[in-house]
Amino acid sequence: MGLSDIAEGIEVTTEQRDPGVARSDRTDASLTERLMPFAEELPCSAEEAALVVEAYAEGASLGRSAAVAELPKTTAAKTLYLLGEPIDPLTPTARRVLEDWLAGSISRTEAKTLANVGEAAFALGVYVVTHDPIPAAETAVADALALEDAPDPLSDARSGVDDWL
How many CB atoms lie within 10 A of CB 2? Predict the structure, then answer.
């Protein structure tokens, strides 16, 4: 049995629609515009979130990023966490203690003492444990938070393979 025998009687009754090139591209949209759909889920406005992300992406510390957007440091940390940055002030042991507190096994005072963190770090840790990042928002800021391949400043000081031959 050959291919012609297998294909015998098969006919095309409809044509496939050509989708063409994608017409929607958000590269022209500002970071604020890309964050607008998530404004209700963020702990600050889309404009403030964009300022935090831009400052943070340029290398500013969390505190400096918060100051640029005129936000409390914890709010900036929550925003970056929701946008996909791996921000967690707790150690693995402190996280387990926090989970025991959330399960009702220990008191809040005991959990704070055992976690050995301050009030702000404890509150941020609770937020991180009880909230998930927003996947679509992660995609919206992926370009802004992506690490760029910076040139190696010591490349001239290192020998290459050809130097040994």
Answer: 7
- The dihedral built from the CA positions of residue 144, 140, 89 and 66, taken in this order, carries a sign that is positive
Sequential DSSP letters for 18-75? ---S----GGGS-HHHHHGGGTTTSSS-HHHHHHHHHHHHTT--HHHHHHHTT--HHH
Amino acid at 113: T
Matching residue, tokens 């009687």: 9
Question: How many residues are given for the chain?
Answer: 165
Between CA 42 and CA 83 the distance in angstroms is 9
Backbone CA torsion sign across 45, 47, 53, 59: negative
Structure tokens at 57: 């992406």
Residue 39's contacts (CB-CB under 8 Å, 6 or more residues apart) are 45, 46, 49
Token code pair at residue 133: 């990042």
What does the pLDDT look like over 34-87, one tens digit per residue? Answer: 899 998 999 999 999 999 999 998 888 999 999 999 999 999 999 999 998 888
Write the single-letter amino acid at 90: L
DSSP codes joined into one string, 126-152: HHHHH----HHHHHHHHHHHPPP-PPP
**Closest residue by Cα to residue 141 from 63, 65, 67:** 65
pTM of the prediction?
A: 0.69
